Amino acid sequence: HKERAPGSLTNHDFYSRPKEAASATKTALGTVYSLSTPARSIHSNSSNPKDKLRRIAVSPGTIICQQLVQEGTYGRIYSGILHHPLGETRDVLIKTVVDGASLSQVAYLLSEGSTLCGISHPNILFPVAAVTELSGPPKVAYPLAAKGNLKLYLQSCREIGIQNSQLSTRQLVEFGLQVARGISHLHSLGVLHKDIATRNCVLDVELNVRVCDNALSRDVFPGDYHCLGDNENRPVKWMALETLEKKFFTASSDIWSLGVLLWELATLAAMPFEEVDCFELSAYLRDGYRLAQPVNCPDEL
């Protein structure tokens, strides 16, 4: 399958010496992950979400929603202000739900919003404040990333053309390295992400990528999640075979998803396995088929 993937990069874009650059990138990705991740078993963090968020709990009036950034059926993501006790303010990204959201929708926000709580790393976006009181919708606040969601940013670059976006392929490779650093740090702490994708990353003004949790992603990116008859929406096209078939998550299944994210970067956030029906994906992978190499992507990369 050698059809040109949407948003694929030109030969000129993929460096003047693509083989050398791609080979260096492959080495760098492996080094970034292996040096900081111990060879030990990794277990999901099973702490109570409310207990974790309670450590950063603030009063309802402390987090102020201002501009709507993304919305779904019940989820809302705003830019806003966090008021500190000493009178200082901080620009934040706020995830919340509408009035009248179901208990399960509230539980999803709190559970997924607490995944990265307390994990500090340059490539991790962790919550800095939360409102969990029952008097109104919960809110989870994060440091504001000026360039916003990585998937939406890449898609906007595809629409205007990569030459006009001033986004180099070298920068795309650096994005992948930064995500690898963030995931490696999570794994070194024994934390599995379980939903690595460009939709769950943000970009700051200096084009630094930070991996975030997947709170509200099912709602604001509904096309990326599918139900396979088990009443659970899952990121099917980003999932490893063992996860699809047995719901078995490991560090390796996270790295599989990282590989799909790298493909997203090379195609400027095209849909992976777009031609494959979700119900047929397990058989497709079991038969040995994989994502098509984007046109003009060097073999080494």
Automatic annotation (TrEMBL):
Q: What is this protein called?
A: Protein kinase domain-containing protein
Native organism taxonomy: Eukaryota, Metazoa, Ecdysozoa, Arthropoda, Hexapoda
Q: Sorted alphabetically, which InterPro entries does this protein's record hold?
A: Kinase-like_dom_sf, Prot_kinase_dom, RTK, Ser-Thr/Tyr_kinase_cat_dom, Tyr_kinase_AS
Superkingdom of origin organism:
Eukaryota
| PROSITE patterns reported for this sequence | PROTEIN_KINASE_DOM (PS50011), PROTEIN_KINASE_TYR (PS00109)
Pfam families in the record: PK_Tyr_Ser-Thr
Using the UniProt annotation, give all residue ranges assigned to the region (Disordered).
1-20
Check the record and name the PANTHER family matching this protein: DERAILED 2, ISOFORM B (PTHR24416:SF531), TYROSINE-PROTEIN KINASE RECEPTOR (PTHR24416)
Per the record, its GO cellular-component terms are: plasma membrane; receptor complex
Q: Which GO terms describe its biological process?
A: axonogenesis; cell surface receptor protein tyrosine kinase signaling pathway; positive regulation of neuron projection development; positive regulation of phosphatidylinositol 3-kinase/protein kinase B signal transduction
Domain (Protein kinase) spans 63-301
Species for this entry? Anopheles dirus
What's a single GO MF annotation on this record?
Answer: protein kinase activity
